[in-house]
Amino acid sequence: MSQPTLRTARRRRLGAELRALRESAEVSVEQAARKLHGDNSKISRIETGSYRGSRLELETLLDLYGVPEQDKLRKRLIALSAQGRQRSWWRQHADALGPGLKELLSLESDTVRIAAFQPLVVPGLLQTEEYAAAIIGGCGEQLSAEEIDFYVSLRVERQGVFRRKEPPQYQCYVTEGVVRQVVGGPEVMAGQLRHLMHMNEASGITVQVIPFRGPFVNVGSAFVLFTYPDPMDLDIVYVEYLDGTLFLQEDATVSRYRETFDALRSAALSSEKSMELISSVVQELERNPS
């Protein structure tokens, strides 16, 4: 299972398209390398996505492969290459972040759709500061108060994706256990649940609960499916586990997660019924705050 960053995934998709074009044009690796004034390994690295070629190199190869200036495929490949060069807001924090978190932030930065399943906690993009502090502080690592504050602030900053000019569509399924597990105390949890209800009212955001007595769907663990505005319909699945993260892009694997997400839909309450359940839990917490 590969673990590409979004940028690497785009380069791989671009490289695969360039290889198909080269073979269709019956251009050898040696001929393409000579055209770029490089060696064979350069073409190999471009086609496998391990090397980010320049705009000029891309244009040169497209000319060599006979792709016309106004061809739609040419424009799509150039756009795909340009998207891989964009800098993200979180780069200012890069030195303080681990590779897995960097990749997650990269995935969130320009996705057009997020589909999430979370059986344990409220998803990070929907957490309040108080709830996030309780989660991060209880993660099992020995974090200082300053470190907890940093990661809470970062989590809140991540939620800026919903304030973009064109925010992503967001749909998530959480289990009833997520709603009923009191994290940070009754007051913090009630505030978190009210926040979920508020976010569910926003355009493009849907929160649904999978009830205890609903149909069982064997998912295994939390996951997030990201969809991008790439010309090649690039999707990536993010899976987090105790010792690390996986970033999956193989078509067959992504398709299985899409099917799983569709199965969860049949097990979940409607958005309206989900909000009724969440509201009832808030009322229980307010009646019994201790």
Task: Report the CATH topology name of the largest domain.
Answer: Endonuclease, Chain A
Largest sheet: 6 strands, mixed
Task: Say which CATH homologous superfamily of the largest domain is assigned.
Answer: Endonuclease Chain A
C-alpha Rg, in Å?
Answer: 22 Å
> What is the H-and-E element order?
HHHHHHEHHEHHEEEEHH
User: How much strand content do the residues show?
Assistant: 5-15%
What is the CATH C level class of the largest domain, in words?
A: Alpha Beta
- The number of distinct structural domains comes to 2
**Distance between the terminal alpha carbons, to the nearest Å?**
46 Å
Give the % helix: 40-55%
| Widest sheet: strand ordering | 3-2-1-4-5-6
- Find the count of extended strands (DSSP E, 2+ residues): 6
Question: Which stretches are poorly predicted, pLDDT < 50 over at least 5 residues?
Answer: none
Q: What do the pLDDT scores average to?
A: 86
